[in-house]
Amino acid sequence: MISFLNPLLLFGVLGACIPVIIHLFNKKKAISHRFAAIDFLLQSNKRIYVKFKLRQLILLILRACLFAFLAMALARPFVKNIGGGNDGKNPTSNVIIVDDSYSMQYAEKGKPLFHAAKNTARNIIGQLTKDDKAAVIGCSLANSMIVPELEYDKENLLTVIENLRPGYSTTHITSALDRAIEILMSDETPIKQIFIITDLTRNGWDLKWFHDGQQKLQNNITGVHIINVSEGKDYGNIAVTGLEFQNNVFNKSGDVSFKATVSNYSPVKIKNLLAQVYVDQKKVVQGFFNIEAYSQEVKEFSFKVEKGNHFGWIEIPEDNLIADNKRYFAINEEQKLDVLLIDGDPKTNIYESETFYLEKALNPARGHVSSLKPVICSIHEVEGMVFEDFDIVFLCNVEMLPYEKIEELERFVKDGGAVVFSLGDKVEGSYYNNSFEALLPHRLYTKKIFTGNVLITEEQPLSLKISGVMHPAMRFLSETNINMLTSVSFHQVFYVEPAPLEGAKTVLSFSDNTPAIVERQVGKGRVALIASSIDRDWTDLPVKPLFVPLIQQLCRYISGSTTGETKQEILVEQNWQFPAPYDVGNLETTNPGGVKTLLPPQVINNEKYFVYHETHLPGVYSFLINDTSQQQNLFYFPVNVDASESNLEKISEKEITALMGETNVMVRSSSSGERREVVRGEAKTTLWGVLLLLALGILVAESFVSRK
């Protein structure tokens, strides 16, 4: 359907009559000449006359078309592509989705794509009538809970657009579509349209959503209009996409090293790309990357730091998208923990000793470079030990303790200490249940031996597993480590009584769903029970790679170490959680912009945590525990952008159309060079540029023909 923005100018088409009139008035009459051999001349004259008439007719048509095309071009014709069949008279309801992810900060000649997106949104609002309603939403996680209502007030809508800012999260087109559908479903206007203003990065389109989303769109939406502010261009980008620390604990030399990953999302090889590492705002080391097109390179950086807590980042030179040119990290000194290991079954051969593998797990490098400092004593030496001098006490296959030491152990735990019971051949369940009744996180029931010599399920050795919600002490487990749990074999275990004690929580289970490690808070402290031995008498766990991080993390958790959770990288808009030490009032956080927030503890899955939601900015956040029993040192945790948004690969119009199914959809560019507009929710492709181009071609052709 062709329409005109300036139909009155179509009267200019009458100008096509001017060449016809000139042609008629300028018509020449033939002159008669009498001459001998006239027949020859007459035949020659007829051929010339036919050519002359044909050229004049062509010139007449070209000149008439020239005037007609010029007049139609001035009338600005366009072709309507009405997504919902709107005739331009019915009121419409419109939801405008503005992509506010960090890829929209991509700037060309100093102008970010987000600036063009806001201009496009204003243009849409400006062309709505007083009877049209609209709402404006973003598509980042920061705006995921905002569901505004449709309104007629265009000035208010323009104010909403003016207040939009690009964030640092990834694109979530489908979550924005969910909110748009929610807004439009309750509206009674027959024509409901969604406008998506985006750079069309593939990362923003959740393909799984469209399995059900196609039907939701088709049932509730008249048409979807997608405006590509990147003007169909394929943008390249270079980004710091990964940071992995090799060691984040202090050793005697203060060495720290990490591996950085830089990705090249462009068709050109990058040579000698400078990367600089800053610690506490001072440059400490630098290196160079050489990366093939559409590839990445990993490089290791090493440096020294002084004792204490530090923050820093690695950065590459600024390009068109600066949001992903830095990646932040934090180095928090581990809290030193003194651990007493009471060996209930010492051996002449130290390799067979009950505490041999446990000591190596607590301090793998020897020389007390670990944050866990173990001290070993036998049952005969325990009388001379003062439990208050330690943070954690391990009872490893201890047959019995003097009554006075049991009472001291109870006071130690209730005042904030931590105790771990590991079992063995010397342990009697009845003695433990009676003597350690105030401490045990679970009452012991009976020993069970698995021979593994017959093919009966019950007789096969047990392994480890996670049952239900992952315990906070096990959050260090990666997917690889979780798979390794099944490789551990237990040939003998202690079953606990079925009824758990109040407050007891299972850290890990055996493969038959009975508790393997249980913990419980007692007073201000915590107690843990390992339902097997800590040496190789009953299990091969001590020789598995999982043993060291398992023991160290368990110790940090039950002792309430304040730095246990700070190593984990947090991405923008993710919640940061920190275990709340016993009886701590508040935690004070400070974001990269200097804004302070006081967090009270809250209970999640029966555990007390500090939870921080305002991770909107990438950078280093600091926190301070307001507790006189803790050292008043600042700790840090980094927040980084999600590297998936750094890949600016576009999703094609063909793919989008396929995803939308039978929903009326139009994908277009916001480029002014294409002269496309959006009027009342209708996509209109202007034709006057084409007509001007044709007029120019006719003018050239007329000049060529007239010279013949």
UniProtKB/TrEMBL annotation:
PROSITE patterns named among the record's database cross-references: VWFA
Pfam family, one: BatA
Alphabetized SUPFAM superfamilies for the sequence: Class I glutamine amidotransferase-like, vWA-like
Gene3D superfamilies membership: 3.40.50.880, von Willebrand factor, type A domain
TM ranges: 6-25, 57-75, 686-705
Key words of the record: Membrane, Transmembrane, Transmembrane helix
SMART domains the UniProt entry points to: VWA
Domain of life, per lineage: Bacteria
Domain VWFA: residue ranges: 93-277
Entry keyword annotation includes Chloroplast: no
Stated name of the protein: VWFA domain-containing protein
